[in-house]
Amino acid sequence: MDAAIAWLRDRVPAAVADFVHAIARAEVHLRRTPMIYRIIRHDIRRVHLKPFRYGLYFRVVGDRVIVIACQHTSRSPHVILRTLSTRT
Known about the structure:
Number of helices: 3
Structural class: alpha+beta
CATH architecture: 2-Layer Sandwich
CATH superfamily: RelE-like
CATH topology: YaeB-like fold
Shape: globular
CATH class: Alpha Beta
Strand order of the largest sheet: 1-2-3-4
């Protein structure tokens, strides 16, 4: 997430606050209903950071939600899966 925020700060500074709010909204949803999100691979799920083209990839372990990655949706699915496999 830090890399995405830094990228936005360099190119579209006005969007940083909105991006942080999108992360906060996703956090609220993940606390309430993490299991509603589609499984991407094994037990890894994704929530979109609307209206941005980013996804938070996470897994549910017990009563905790562990964020694994924040990736732009234009990235190749193969790159995203490779990234996820190195972080699991």
